Amino acid sequence: MEVRTAEAQRKLIAYLRSPVAIRERCEQLFALVTEGQSRYFTCDLMRLTKVAHYVIEVMRCEYPDLEIPFHSRRRHFEVGSVPRLAQLDSQLAGLTPVEKAAAKFDLAIVSVLLDAGAGNNWRYDEQETGLNLTRSEGLAIASLQMFCQGAFSSHSLLQVDAQKLQAFTEAELITGFQVNTKNPLVGISGRLRLLQKLGQVLVSSPNLFGNENPRPGNLVNYLLGKSQNGQLAAASVFSAVLEGLSEIWPTRLEVAGINLGDVWQHPAVKDDGLVPFHKLSQWLTYSLLEPLQELGLLITGLDALTGLPEYRNGGLCIDLGLVNLKHPDVLRSPHSVASEVIVEWRALTVILLDQIAATVREKLSMSPEELPLVKILQGGTWTAGRKIAAELRIAGTSPIQIDSDGTVF
Fold first, then answer.
1. What is the pLDDT of residues 63-104, one digit of tens each?
2. CA 12 to CA 7: how far, in whole Å?
3. Is 34 left (phi over 0), alpha (psi -120 to 50) or beta?
4. Which of 110, 88, 104, 73 lies closest to 202 in space, CA to CA?
5. How much is the pTM?
């Protein structure tokens, strides 16, 4: 991908790593659809109110007082109303507040990176509770158990370090996730590569992850240095995540030798044709905010980040008729993450989540400060997407099937 000058390349990379770029590029594809120029989709904005009412119904069911937490990995650790986070806090009791936050960063970062779609046939049996867990909750509890058992550390329990991650084996991952021929997990090799690459980038970025015993949790110290007057912008956390983790992703589009991560091409997009999403990086950002709040930081600019373009939020839009397919053939076989149809679907999801959020707030007479997007996702669109999928399809599968390598969804 050729860009004329080094300065232009630097500016392009910075732009593609910004929430502004995500919205601007997704808006182009949203316009393509609403103007009737898409090969795959139409959009019925008359359904927006219906979708908002459905989301509000789900929100009130899940959180009757509308005191909604952030959409973060921590919610999955609470599955089954088991006090796992309280148990973790008790195990961290002897640490300083910053050390506790670092441990929670370690857990969140590894757990989110291991979270891409599990497939329809995988289960995790939690021996302590007898719960049989699937999908994101199962992946969360498996990674939490591994973390608490010291699976990601070469030094001590309740820690993740570069040395261990670089030496991590597929056998360890298979054991930790209870994978066998009768319990297959999608994307094992992709997940393993992410862990090993994470170990490598921890070593190569001492300014972010520390010189001695490089670990994801040292990002806490970096972010504390970025805070001003006890405040930290959500976009600053996102920027640090992208800067620190960009090189972990498998072979993707590059500019000037820099891996762009969750960035894809679409011929209808002007200039360079690139569409950034950074779904996992944004969800990881959301998942790091609560440990920072526990340190007393005020997180500002929450709505600068976007909604997450994944199959629950995107599926909600299709299942409730906000997005419609021009040809049913799209539903008959899986699609590559890089395909035009998936890029368009994800772009529609980003823009429609903003519109759903605005409509939800209007119906509830609440401001963006009272009900930021990160809470609407939790309350919310992700939960509603799962609910309607379960009502419409066996095992609550996505309306559009995606070929996953374990590193995007």
1. 999 999 999 999 999 999 999 999 999 999 999 999 999 999
2. 9
3. alpha
4. 110
5. 0.93
Provide the greatest CA pair distance for the chain.
Answer: 60
Distance CA 276, CA 15 (A): 10
CA 123 to chain centre: 21
3-class DSSP state of 324: strand
Burial of 240 (0-12, 13-18, 19+ CB in 10 A): middle
Tell me the two tokens of residue 155: 């030094």
What gap in Å lies between CA 19 and CA 360, rounded to an integer? 22
Residue 273: Cβ-neighbour burial (10 angstroms; 0-12, 13-18, 19+): middle
Q: Are 295 and 224 in contact (CB under 8 A)?
A: yes
pLDDT digits (tens, 9 = 90+) for 163-203: 999 999 999 999 999 999 999 998 888 889 989 999 999 99
Six-digit token string for 313: 């939020």
Going by C-beta distance under 8 Å and a sequence separation of 6 or more, which residues neighbour residue 25? 269, 274, 275, 276, 347
